[in-house]
Amino acid sequence: MSDEALILRPVCEDDLPLLERFLTDPEAMGPFQWMGWADPHRFRRRWAENGMLGEDGGQLMVACGAERLGFVGWRKMSTWPKASCWNIGAQLFPQARGRGVGTKAQRMLVRYLFEHSPAVRIEADTEVGNIAEQRALEKSGFTREGVLRSAAFRGGRWRDLVRYSVLREDIEAAGCQEG
């Protein structure tokens, strides 16, 4: 990564082949995200429909200058009748992992979602074995809430997830953490 600042930006059409790698390349996905082969045109259809920025969720590219490092995404989750929150995630290319990029990108996404939606809660889930992601979420201001037993199916078996959350008031109390 260069000395340029990390940014989140809308997905462009020329980003789609890179994003499609996440659907067709197990190495790009990493050990905790590969769920098997997926529709390689899913991103292209969503981009054509709404630029991957909809009312119920979206995706933004994580970039540093011209270097595309991965993406962050969010989706609306129902928490109660007439109540919802965002659930977020990040997927980075192998060369961007382990360098603090995910932590910073998730922190930036949290700030973006609280600034541009009335959400009061943002959640994130990761497998119990994904210690790096747990650290990134905690560094991003998330609080570990608990373990969801047998909540995700990957690699032929059910896996436990750790649920994290950050509330609008957490970020306000911290003085809008710097990216």
UniProtKB/TrEMBL annotation:
| Record field: transmembrane | none
Q: Where is the signal peptide?
A: none
Q: Write down the InterPro entries for this protein, in alphabetical order.
A: Acyl_CoA_acyltransferase, GNAT_dom, N-acetyltransferase
Keyword Acyltransferase belongs to the record = yes
Which segments constitute the N-acetyltransferase domain?
A: 6-163
Keywords assigned by UniProt, alphabetized = Acyltransferase, Transferase
GO molecular-function terms, A-Z: acyltransferase activity, transferring groups other than amino-acyl groups
The protein's matches in Pfam families, at most eight in alphabetical order, are given as:
Acetyltransf_3
Q: Domain of life of the organism in this record?
A: Bacteria
Protein family membership: Belongs to the acetyltransferase family. RimJ subfamily.
Q: What is this protein called?
A: N-acetyltransferase
Instruction: Please name the taxonomic classification of the source.
Output: Bacteria, Bacillati, Actinomycetota, Actinomycetes, Kitasatosporales
